[in-house]
Amino acid sequence: MQAAATNASQKERKLTLPDGKALTFATPVTGYDVAKSIGEGLAKAALAAKLNGEVIDLHRPLFADGALEIVTRKSADALDIIRHDAAHVMAEAVQELFPGTQVTIGPSIENGFYYDFGRDTPFTTDDLAKIEAKMKEIVARNESFTREEWPRDEAIQHFEGIGERYKAEIIRDLPATETISVYKQGKWYDLCRGPHLPATGAVGTAFKLMKVAGAYWRGDSKNAMLQRIYGTAWRDQKELDAHLHMLEEAEKRDHRKIGREMDLFHMQEEATGSVFWHDKGYTIWRALENFIRGRIHRAGYQEVKTPQLFDSSLFKASGHWDLYGDNMFKVEAKADEKVFGVKPMNCPAHVQIFNQGLKSYRDLPIRMAEFGCCHRNEPSGAMHGIMRVRQFTQDDAHIFCRADQVEQEALDYFKLQLGVYRDLGFDKINVKLALRPGPNVRLGSDEVWDRAEDGLRNSLRAAGLDFEELPGEGAFYGPKVEFHLTDAIGRTWQCGTLQLDFNLPERLDASYIGEDSHRHRPVMLHRAILGSMERFIGILIEHHAGKFPLWLAPVQVVVATITSDADDYAKDVQKQLEKAGIRVKTDLRNEKINYKIREHSLVKAPQIWVLGKREAEEGKVAIRRLGSDAQEVLALADAIRKITEDSAVPQ
RNA sequence: GCCGACGUAGCACAGCGGUAGUGCAGCGGUUUUGUAAACCGAAGGUCGGGAGUUCAAUCCUCUCCGUCGGCACCA
After folding, report:
1. Which nucleotide in the DNA or RNA is closest to residue A563, CA to C1'?
2. Are strands A557-561 and A340-342 parallel, antiparallel or unpaired?
3. Prior bond to A505 cis, omega within 30?
């Protein structure tokens, strides 16, 4: 912005197009002028200009020399502007329909946009239809977007004068150097940084208002609650339809729906936030747990089991009682007896095991793992199926090590973690490195933080991981690496984590004897691969839409007979499969084979072995795999050999 | 916790001031069947809990609980 202002007065504009062609124009010149000089078609298609990487209004004078690109509907940048403009069109529609509603902010977001309105009465779903219709009118009116720059004080006065308190507040909080720009579309206008399309017609009609929701002003729960309307917007109807279709498909794989259909688990009012795992769901649980168990034992971890209830003194010492006491379950067994806390995490318990006996530097690192059941009294609104619950089991571990071992331990852990994700079918993982929070809320010296952050950074690079750094997002006791997975509906879930902690060993007085025969504090690495068993199984359900890989499937084979002639043979097949360690169910019911196939396919049995008179006589099985209607007829021994191979746990 | 919507049979849903219906599942019977729904029959519900308004409440009002969509939170 500042650089732009300094050379805005130049007489000539030297521009380079994406194809490398250099052009010179007399000032003032706009993106539209340049497009027109190239061709009428381009000028017609042009939506905005991109000057040195910054998208600006098509009709705004180009304020600097450099690279120029004309943004059309085909450009990747177009979607963002369309969505942002859709938000403006929605705000205009709302203020036209509901006078007195205050505007606040309305950004473009993934897949669409939202706008937050200040208003006493919330919008109804009927209102959405009206607003959408009004938006289409505004698009049809094709009102031109025009940019104006206003003096700051006038802008504040103006918005306050018309009762737009939120807008006035926004301007007041803008840095003094920021230009105050206002965009007009027809009679309506809004404080906005831009850029915008040439006119509302360019928004098109490939948008749809999706839902109303409450949202706090400036994202702070201490502030007033605004009325947010979410919409989705696309470049054309085809894209919109595809998006809506994707949402429908995503809904079909909702873990709550599949969990019921496949009889995996349920939840009920008497135990809000806790899961009842049914036989089939708990089978998946055990398969997953044993898979992780195999991996961590090979990686040199020990496995422990620690108590659920602790005297409150332990959590007071660890600091959790003060910080998170409100979200802990507290137990008073008898009046006048001491108060217990149900553990909300396993770390203090693991330190207690570490503290048993004297540790030498030669003992380190100690990698202590636990499938630890924890309870947190999460806010009622936070609960979500089995993804966010009040009782959950972490695949937790704490690595006690020397400072000079941190980097190698972190690197080993990343490899372990990525291997697990790969074997579970996840390739796209977003890695984030949360760095030190503000100086008044963090513990430890800058040198310690430097070393900790550099250590994690180096380990991430050594593991070949791309990562995003999040300044200020670390825990008070140390930086953390977060691993985020994306579910079927596009929501992201933080699963794995590695956190460096210099604090807890100090508070709980953990120490080891160093080479110098003096006591030293170990560094503690907190880490979880899956995060929570509950959440991860939920993610797996949605990721696979219930069609689990064979090694995880709760029932791996259903043996289904065609007539009762095959019953004895079916029982024999079942026995042999069980002997081979395959999870098998047999269906001898007096039903048609069509009926059986349908029923077992609907609950996602990976394989159905169909047995009729023919198979019984020949000692064969007809295998039908989920998702295909092809049959493979094999001799029983071959079939068992094959499924044993195919259902092997990934090594 | 906050804003909004919702809660009717095991599941999916309809009904909406005069004490409830459909489909599937379940149950009983008939059917022995070759790769995604055989046929017949009977049954199943204090309409989430509590209070209020009314001659009368599943329906209206209040309140509590829970679920869902967001927001905030997530050691």
Report:
1. B32
2. unpaired
3. no
Question: Is the CB of A444 within 7 Å of strand B?
Answer: no
Strands A492-501, A519-520: pairing kind = unpaired
Within residues 224-283 of protein chain A, the ones with CB less than 7 A from nucleic strand B are: 225, 227-228, 230, 256, 260, 267, 269, 272-273
Query: How many residues can be counted in chain A?
Result: 651
C1’ B11 / CA A252, Å: 15
Nucleotide closest to residue A226 (CA–C1') = B3
Residue A412 predicted with pLDDT over 90? yes
Q: Does the CB of A601 fall within 7 Å of any strand B atom?
A: yes
CB A148 within 8 A of CB A182: yes
Q: Supply angle C-alpha A372, A378, A384, rounded to 5.
A: 90
Cα gap A530→A528, rounded to integer Å: 6
Which pair of structure tokens corresponds to residue A346? 């396993």
- Is residue A388 flagged as an active site residue? no
User: Can you list the alpha helix ranges (DSSP code H) found in A202-319?
Assistant: 237-252, 255-261, 279-298, 312-318
pLDDT in tens, A24-51: 999 899 999 999 999 999 999 999 999 9
Q: Pick the catalytic residue: A84, A192, A343, A347?
A: A347
| Triad A546, A380, A313: Cα angle to 5° | 105
Concatenating the DSSP letter of every residue in A88-112 gives HHHHHHHHHHSTTPEE----EETTE
Is there contact between A564 and strand B, defined as CB under 7 Å from any strand atom? yes
Residue with tokens 């000079």: A404
* pLDDT score of A441 more than 70: yes
pLDDT at A559: 97
Give me the CA A485–C1' B8 separation in Å, rounded: 38
The pLDDT of residue A487: 64
**A204 CA, B71 C1': separation in Å?**
29
Question: Tens of pLDDT along A288-333?
Answer: 999 999 999 999 999 999 999 999 999 999 989 988 999 999 998 7
What whole-number percentage of chain A has pLDDT above 70?
98
Question: What is the complex's ipTM, to 2 decimals?
Answer: 0.96
Q: Contact at 8 Å (CB) between A89 and A138? A: yes
Q: Which two tokens stand for residue A299?
A: 């990686």
Tell me which protein residue sits closest to nucleotide B68, measuring alpha carbon to C1': A384
Burial A539-565 (b: 16+ CB within 10 A, else e): bbbbbbbbebbbbbbbbbbbbbbbeee
d(CA A52, CA A69): 8
Active site residue A396: yes
Query: Which entry of A255, A350, A398, A457 is annotated as an active-site residue?
Result: A398
Global pTM value? 0.93
